[in-house]
Amino acid sequence: MAQSNQPDRHEHYLQTAAALVEKSLREQKGYRWLGELCELGPRLSGSQNSYRAILWAKAKMEALGLDRVILQPVMVPNWVRGKVEEARVIESTRVKGRKLAVAALGGSIATPKEGITAEVVEVKDFAELAALGEKGRGKIVLFNRPFAQHLTNTFAGYGKTVDQRVHGAVEAALAGGVAALVRSVTTRYDNVPHTGSLNYREGVAQIPAAAIGQIDADFLSAALKQDPRLKVRLKLSCQTLPDIQSYNVIGDLLGSQFPDEYIVVAGHYDSWDKGCGAHDDGAGCLQALEVPDLFKRLELRPKRTIRCVFYINEENGIRGALKYAQEADSLGLKHLAAIESDRGAFTPRGFSVEGDSAVIETLRGWLPYLEKADIDWVRPGGSGVDVSQIKNAKALIGYVPDSQRYFDFHHSDKDVYEAVNPREMQMGAAAMAILVYLLSEEGI
Amino acid sequence: MAQSNQPDRHEHYLQTAAALVEKSLREQKGYRWLGELCELGPRLSGSQNSYRAILWAKAKMEALGLDRVILQPVMVPNWVRGKVEEARVIESTRVKGRKLAVAALGGSIATPKEGITAEVVEVKDFAELAALGEKGRGKIVLFNRPFAQHLTNTFAGYGKTVDQRVHGAVEAALAGGVAALVRSVTTRYDNVPHTGSLNYREGVAQIPAAAIGQIDADFLSAALKQDPRLKVRLKLSCQTLPDIQSYNVIGDLLGSQFPDEYIVVAGHYDSWDKGCGAHDDGAGCLQALEVPDLFKRLELRPKRTIRCVFYINEENGIRGALKYAQEADSLGLKHLAAIESDRGAFTPRGFSVEGDSAVIETLRGWLPYLEKADIDWVRPGGSGVDVSQIKNAKALIGYVPDSQRYFDFHHSDKDVYEAVNPREMQMGAAAMAILVYLLSEEGI
């Protein structure tokens, strides 16, 4: 259907959408929850902080009066950064002793205790590295391709840049390199290292890899031009411990008519161990949590069950999402739709939908209501890493806020509470609440 | 017309739009100019800084190779803040000596040198003040109504809140008050005072008025509940000097076919004397300036003349806009369209157009090109304070970026270079450049 063809339903939806937006913006409740959550620090899978945060979430869902709160056990990887993390120019006629801002990439092995000391070879991409032939052997490879700033959508730019972070260690090892330094994949020029996961490949030697701040990457590049034989010493003490028990946190607001039909609204609860995972993805989780809470505050009892899921381990394993989807499948749970917020707490733009064209047309018909929260479009496209694991939903939906600033903060010490704008976060919560309400009333 | 019905024109426009976006984002030239401009400090009409900035703009336009650069003389008001600006709780059993964060409102008269010392009466609106009857007499009136946060568009929220800043001094005087303190009209909770103009009214006593930070407004409100007789002493040394000569800065890129048809692309160059007027409206001016410069960098010679105007004195007089419009009218200049950027350097959303429905349909037909810069809509609506003075244009257009964060910074010490995101600013420049290019090629 397009907008509801029952005039009183149409009016009710317009008013409900406006009420959801107003309440979300006026009370800024999710934003205040985010302040509490960020006090606990970052939430890397398996970390002590992540357990404190899981208990906080469970207690919060219970305090809000959700009808059912579940901790779903998940075994997660347990990579730890360790205390030693440094890089220095140690042999150079010009800049000896200069410290470089680095952060181990998630999953990296450690260096030996005394570090790895080697000459540096700089490349912009894997083709350039391959063309070097034997010149990479024994070197620290500096992958120094800047972020693809020219694209309107920063996720597209990220996609064009992040290969050096994900696959740099393998490519460097294949070239005989001893370690990799990767220019931080970020949109704003500064010297903060941005971490993120790397992949090793079976049969290829594992070498340590770290992100380097952009200013220091440029410094090192310039220094190499003056002094191509300079050496860098890299020390990392990170390690991968055995898998460890963790949890997805699930809270249900039961539907009045179809309690066995679920609408999942979700974020991922783990973060990298830099900053406090405010945008990525604490805010997404708390926007999701505000959906059932907004319904309660407005005394809206949805027809279908609203299931709020805080997935664990999106960043380095998606074990939480796999576990949830598996169990849901084996229990034969009926998911009408699942929505994920994992693109930062920025101003709303649209919803990106995996579903057939009839589903997309139905959602487009709701734009007159979604526009109350500045949603301008509904388009076919990817949803979210976590919800896309669910097998039987009619619609998998990604909440799409504006992308311009996301990678300024992403996976770094800059992803803190202060980086989140309260109104932008609350607009997102309202946008999701409107869509979830319509789904719960109208079905698809 | 809708999108161009000549296939090769359509393809050319798509490619040109994409090229404008890419160049703007990749080179971030306007953003770097903004850094230079902000080094000069704020640019209140008539201030020394404003002259330095005017000379900087003229030199910049000449260095960029615009075909004609003009300083258009304008007499502007000359209000100066002065050195003394403070408020303290001085008689109270509980919080004596507590300093309050205040900033004189633009246009305010000074207090006597020894300050104004009086009891405080708090109201939320003018009706509440009127209902107080004689209780306002001899008091400092604290207008303490919070920003209307519940509305999606913050300009609408501003409109519902700013009456206390604009008319508070008059209403307080009518109630017998001796001074006015006005809760800062801003969206983000902190203690920074946000200034802005006030209006006095002929026949009503002029009393001094200042903005107060939100935290201190709440503090004072709570203190008044404990101790209703507490007194505040307000000292302001601001004054209005005689009008002074200033200038609009105008730069033309001449059209190849219709050099006498102008497309104005504009911002206002003056700012308040807090922060450095980065969002309001240094960025708007430099987005406008980047339009002809992007054309030059891409070797696009427009058919019509692109006229970049930095209007002086939007904040407290709009004398620059009145002068420009008057002279244009008396010279019979032909303005095809005029576009203003004065809503901050945030991510693009749309264009708001004063023009007949055929004009709006024409512009809507260009959405396939404008979408390259994330422009989602063209709607009828207000353009900009400055360009709306122009009498004979077929379309007066406001560039509309996202509004969520604008009033966080507006008219305060927070409106600095660091508050501007380079990508967001550059997306806006690209959006305007695409629209101006289409106007210059197609006409309307």
Please tally the helical runs of chain A, counting DSSP H or I stretches of 4 or more residues: 13
Distance between the termini of chain A: 9 Å
Q: Provide the succession of SSEs of chain A.
A: HHHEEEEEHEHHEEHEEEHEHEEHHEEHH
Q: Quote the CATH topology of the largest domain in chain A.
A: Aminopeptidase
Shape of chain A: elongated
Portion in beta strands of chain A: 25-35%
User: Structural class per helix/strand content of chain A?
Assistant: alpha/beta
Which residues of chain A sit in consecutive blocks of at least 5 with pLDDT less than 50?
A: none
Helix content of chain A: 25-40%
What's the gyration radius of chain A in Å? Answer: 23 Å
Which two chains share the most extensive interface?
A-B, 29 and 29 residues
State the oligomer: homodimer
Arithmetic mean pLDDT of chain A: 97
What is the level-2 CATH architecture name of the largest domain in chain A? 3-Layer(aba) Sandwich
Looking at CATH, the homologous superfamily of the largest domain in chain A is Zn peptidases
Side by side, the strands of the main sheet of chain A go 1-10-12-11-13-16-14-15
